[in-house]
Specification:
6-stranded mixed beta sheet; identical protein binding; 6 strands; binds tetrahydrodeoxyuridine; alpha+beta; zinc ion binding; 4 helices; Cytidine Deaminase, domain 2; Cytidine deaminase; globular; 160 residues
Length: 160
């Protein structure tokens, strides 16, 4: 008989008041970063913030292009810029949020597959989990313990 693998992930669903001070600061910076998005085509503004091991924060936003596929998501903008500027710094938290240009309300920000793959690369590189805090429905937040929970059965350098 065929065997079955069951994959279980647990995600914390949190109110703002349940976030730590550092998590709140990271989410606040992600919200600020969304204002910097260059998104004239989708008008969907995404902000990402990285909390680094020295307690500082680093931000990114989506950067679109008239040749649509040449644009880049907020998460990858932040991660690639961090890796370029501070290649040996470990990431303690990744926070992501989004909103539509004409609206104040923050929307669920679920990273796309390509961003999950890139997040997984850096998690693997630093050999320490990167917790991920995402804007969720109804003004709440999802907190994943690691990128691996967002991308099970991932392809990484161990498979090469
Ligand atoms: N976007 C992100 O920045 N992150 C994601 O994970 C999903 C999508 C951006 C890309 C594009 O600029 C806009 O949202 C609409 O897809």
């Amino acid at each position: 008989m065929a065997s079955e693998l069951k994959v279980q992930i647990s995600v914390d669903v949190l109110e703002t008041s349940e976030l730590s001070a550092q998590e709140q600061q990271a989410m606040q910076l992600a919200q600020d970063a969304a204002n910097d998005a260059y998104a004239p085509y989708s008008n969907f503004l995404v902000g990402a913030a990285l909390l680094l091991e020295d307690g500082t924060l680093f931000k990114g936003s989506n950067q679109e292009n008239a040749a649509y596929p040449s644009g880049l998501c907020a998460e990858r903008t932040a991660l690639f810029a961090l890796s370029a500027y501070h290649p040996h710094t470990k990431i303690k938290l990744l926070a992501v949020t989004a909103r539509r240009r004409q609206e104040q309300e923050y929307l669920p920000a679920m990273p796309c597959g390509a961003c999950r793959q890139v997040m997984a690369e850096y998690e693997h590189k630093q050999q320490e989990p990167i917790p991920v805090l995402l804007q969720a429905p109804d003004g709440k937040f999802y907190r994943f313990k690691a990128v691996a929970d967002l991308l099970p059965f991932q392809f990484n350098k161990e498979h090469l």
